Amino acid sequence: MSPTFISFLLVISAMIALPELAAGATRHYKFDIKLKNVTRLCKTKSILTVNGEFPGPRLVAREGDQVVVKVVNHVKNNVSIHWHGVKQIRSGWADGPSYITQCPIQTGQSYVYNFTIVGQRGTLFWHAHISWLRVSIYGPIIILPKPGVPYPFEKPYKEVTLLLGEWFNGDPEAIISQALQTGAAPNISDAFTINGLPGPFYNCSSISDAYQLNVQPGKTYLLRLINAALNDDLFFSIANHTVTVVESDATYVKPFHTNIILITPGQTTNLLLRTKTSPYPNSTFLIAIRPYNTGLGTFDNTTASAILHYSTTVQPLGRRLPFLIIPPPLPSFNDTAFVANYTSKLRSLATNQYPANVPLYIDRRFYFTVGLGTSPCPNNGSCQGPNGTKFAASVNNVSFELPSTALLQAYFFRRSEGVYTTDFPVNPPFAFNYTGTPPNDTFVVNATKVVVLKYNTSVELVLQDTSIQGIESHPLHLHGFNFFVVGQGTGNYDPVKDPVKFNLRDPVERNTFGVPSGGWVAVRFLADNPGVWFMHCHIEVHMSWGLRMAWIVLDGDLPNQKLPPPPLDLPKC
Ligand SMILES: *[C@@H]1O[C@H](CO)[C@@H](O)[C@H](O)[C@H]1NC(C)=O
Ligand SMILES: *[C@@H]1O[C@H](CO)[C@@H](O)[C@H](O)[C@H]1NC(C)=O
Ligand SMILES: *[C@@H]1O[C@H](CO)[C@@H](O)[C@H](O)[C@H]1NC(C)=O
Ligand SMILES: *[C@@H]1O[C@H](CO)[C@@H](O)[C@H](O)[C@H]1NC(C)=O
Ligand SMILES: *[C@@H]1O[C@H](CO)[C@@H](O)[C@H](O)[C@H]1NC(C)=O
Ligand SMILES: *[C@@H]1O[C@H](CO)[C@@H](O)[C@H](O)[C@H]1NC(C)=O
Ligand SMILES: *[C@@H]1O[C@H](CO)[C@@H](O)[C@H](O)[C@H]1NC(C)=O
Ligand SMILES: *[C@@H]1O[C@H](CO)[C@@H](O)[C@H](O)[C@H]1NC(C)=O
Ligand SMILES: *[C@@H]1O[C@H](CO)[C@@H](O)[C@H](O)[C@H]1NC(C)=O
Ligand SMILES: *[C@@H]1O[C@H](CO)[C@@H](O)[C@H](O)[C@H]1NC(C)=O
Ligand SMILES: *[C@@H]1O[C@H](CO)[C@@H](O)[C@H](O)[C@H]1NC(C)=O
Ligand SMILES: *[C@@H]1O[C@H](CO)[C@@H](O)[C@H](O)[C@H]1NC(C)=O
Ligand SMILES: [Cu+2]
Asked: Which site from 59, 72, 330, 374 is most exposed, i.e. has the minimal number of CB atoms within 10 Å?
């Protein structure tokens, strides 16, 4: 197959008309984890995929549907799949993070994920949740509104998914495993991708390596943007076009116009693109993504691109370079002011139909520092992290160690002894100027500690970035819930002055939010979903270093407030 023909197929598959879906149905999917050879940047390598597709297949359902996915593991690696952003109400056994809610699915085994989508509609995504396998095992989740329920915005002519990803020429499993051994930071990626393709501007890439979005003049397109990259927040822009943000993390937002989007790993954003009414025939515009990064280390500082092409037919551009390619202006790689400005524009729709049910009375308050740290070198100073130590990361100085069995099983069957303890610190263990001069001792504590919450606890959580090894934005992702982002700011959180400025009326509701680089964010959620819920940085290297923890939400008194027993095929460790 010619590369041109392959990109033509990609155009078709991302734009295919959505099937007519009835309500209240069960959607059955089968995910076969298997290898596939793919060529990018002139290198052919074998990658892990679902059903031999890269990026992976679309999961489409309606709000209220039951989703049943049989995952079969045909590869040597252990695998589990997470349905990122799906609330999993009383279905925690289907959430997917390895060693948190399940043991991994081992070679030759299978597991059926069974959950219902309740009170959510929009774009989410699924991805592998073990080690760095999500680098290639990911795909979109599209939740349509119930039948007859319109979008609270203009009906789009067509819908298009844009999956942003990260490409490594090397083997990502070898890269992270070596980094954890030596203590050094892992190698950075070689390219970013849009729908699996890097675009024409890399060494050894051409126009046939660009995802091409064919549009017609004067129409409205719904772009479902997903950041599935491993380690990078991304800026996104389409040259000469303004877009309207209408949804984030499968909740509707008050629409606003912008030329540039900031999207962290783990976030989704739906955009309306109104195409030009009288463009030159066949005119093309670049779609570009580039990282936002304020850390001290090196990062993949490349720009990936796709092509917006005005046409009346779906002809591919072929190998000829299009005649108009002007890159869209993007903020500088460390433009924290832009990020603060952009994220402050995201507000819940907060209408009668889509209310913002922000917890107004708080039962429990938590203050968590998030950031990097170090671990002593076990082999006498030969480590390659800061000053001969190993890189680590933590929440309240606890670097979370994964247990060798799943937390949810240990909790449910009351076998927590030797698996986890319930003394996760409510506040930082020692105070320092979190965004000023770091303490002399930056060593973290390795442990598996959780917070236990009674059913229906309303929680306020302040996440504070630290300057240890450099200030950095940490996109924190909470499983099992959405939270409301009631406040954010720079420097250290002030528990007296800052709460008076909280937005309790229309704060954005999401499952992942970037803790501002050198700042803090305050979120609220109601712990009304019994189970064990992971919370972690969605920058994969930080998660590998331990920037993760778990909440246990106890059963309530009523029968419909309890976690049911596990399915019989739940994998064993
Ligand atoms: C990938 O390519 C290698 C070398 O050409 C080949 O041995 C292998 O069977 C291929 N794998 C798949 C899944 O096609
Ligand atoms: C999925 O779970 C529901 C209960 O929530 C059950 O009725 C159904 O049989 C399950 N389906 C499969 C395929 O396990
Ligand atoms: C695109 O925007 C640039 C400025 O950024 C402008 O010079 C150019 O004329 C515009 N092109 C079209 C086709 O609108
Ligand atoms: C636009 O592209 C199509 C397909 O490649 C071609 O047939 C047509 O002549 C082009 N039109 C113009 C005005 O360049
Ligand atoms: C990243 O690339 C941009 C150009 O795309 C350049 O201006 C900037 O200096 C680079 N930053 C780093 C840290 O390499
Ligand atoms: C961004 O990086 C540039 C070059 O490294 C530096 O001069 C500038 O001060 C930085 N800006 C911010 C806001 O940190
Ligand atoms: C925020 O962005 C808008 C454009 O989207 C701009 O007009 C405004 O000046 C920016 N505000 C700040 C404080 O940078
Ligand atoms: C390494 O140690 C020196 C002094 O021993 C100190 O000045 C420096 O900040 C340390 N560097 C890091 C990255 O911790
Ligand atoms: C913390 O450090 C920052 C940055 O150096 C400084 O601006 C601020 O005044 C310090 N805060 C306190 C309370 O010392
Ligand atoms: C850190 O070390 C410096 C120099 O050794 C010392 O002056 C300072 O008091 C120490 N700071 C803390 C918080 O221990
Ligand atoms: C903590 O765990 C990490 C990751 O397994 C390991 O590299 C590090 O050496 C451990 N630190 C201590 C103090 O045991
Ligand atoms: C797969 O998971 C099982 C259960 O946790 C573990 O015993 C085994 O070592 C893992 N295998 C690999 C290849 O990681
Ligand atoms: Cu992080």
From this structure: 72
